[in-house]
User: What shape does this take?
Amino acid sequence: MLEKLSPILPARDIAETQTFWQRLGFHTVYTDADYLLMKREGAEVHFFHHPDLDPFKCDHGAYLRPADINALDAEWAALGLPATGIPRLERATDKPWGMRELALLDPGGNLIRAGQEIPLG
Assistant: This one.
């Protein structure tokens, strides 16, 4: 019944957000001064303009489930994003809850976790 869930996240600057997410491999479906819609394969993300957003206090995020977390980790690591600050990329690691996950913070401080179940055995 349910096919897709798309987060709607805040963006201080629509153009800056668009440029950042294009680097992540997303393409623009729609944009204007107050809204941005981007897609990559089955993933879709929306942004609304929030000029007063403090990236260090942002509490928005989403969880992405790629088919190959290691390939996504390598692709995004090749972008040279910093490991600290905002934006940043925290490389994929195995978590005790049975997932291999990475974490990405975009320029607005939105947390995007991406994970894949760790095969048993």
The chain has a mean pLDDT of 96. The beta strands are 8-11, 27-31, 35-40, 43-49, 61-64, 88-94, 99-105, 111-117. The radius of gyration is 14 Å.
